[in-house]
Amino acid sequence: MTVRTLLVRGLVAGVAAGVLSWLFSYLFGEPALRDALAFEGHAHGEELVSRGVQSTIGLGTALVLYGVAIGGLFALAYAVAYGRIGSLGPRATAAVLAAGAFVVVFLVPFLKYPANPPAATDDSTVGQRTGLYLVLVLVSVLLAVGSVLLGRRLHPRVGARNAVLLGGGLYLAAITVVLLVLPTVSQPPADFPATVLYEFRLASVGNQVVLWATIGLVFGVFTARALPRSRAASVDSEVAP
């Protein structure tokens, strides 16, 4: 199977993930967002405007496009990872890769800079917060890649289990230092409803769980029948320089 075929499968999985992510956001995230907008309108003495288009067509289009982009990147990462994560088959490789990406790309940055609804972030700090968040995502990904490479190098000497523990330990230690060093930006106002903030952030986590779980599951199912373990070398040849 060529990388091009894997990429197509990743894009299809991304579309499915984007649609399900939108449905989850509409059902579980929209109520908290609506409450946050109501608070913002009350705080500024403004009348709340209907968000019909934004919460349906607008949100759905954005999440589908995001899912397609993530699905494509996931397929490229899969092409590199398949056959190199122990003896895992296609579905298991997709599941492990999706779970790892969820943690590295979303969950770790979320711990430092969790999602905030409208009126819970000072407008003057949005740019700084966004920049720091993107820096943290990049650093997290680079540290994860470095930890995986270290684990692969140590594998022949210390065995698979110890290599995983050492690589994972390195990532946890390094990312902990990064989380402590990076500044905290824009705490929610003291009068912002804690329940709304909690529900909004919980919906944000759920949205990403749905996205990554769908990509891992759909991509794994699509690929399992067409990419037997014995053909990992054909993928390697496509990505080799």
Could you characterize what this model shows?
This protein is mainly α and 241 residues long. The chain folds into two domains: 3-120 and 191-239, no CATH class; 124-187. The chain is 78% helix and 0% strand. The chain has helices at residues 3-43, 52-81, 90-112, 126-158, 160-181, 194-224, 232-239. α1 (3-43) packs antiparallel against α2 and α3 packs across α4 (126-158). The longest helix is centred in the N-terminal third of the chain and has 41 residues, at 3-43. The model is unreliable at 42-49 and 229-241 (pLDDT under 50).
Model regions low in confidence, pLDDT < 50 over at least 5 residues: 42-49, 229-241
The succession of helices and strands, N to C, reads: HHHHHHH
Number of helices: 7
In quaternary terms, these chains amount to single chain
Number of strands: 0
Q: Round the mean pLDDT to the nearest integer and report it.
A: 83
Identify the overall geometry. Answer: flat
Derived from helix and strand composition plus strand pairing, the structural class reads mainly alpha
Distance between the termini: 17 Å
Largest sheet: none
Query: What number of structural domains do the residues give?
Result: 2
What is the percent of helical residues? over 70%
* Radius of gyration, CA atoms, in whole angstroms: 20 Å
Strand content: under 5%
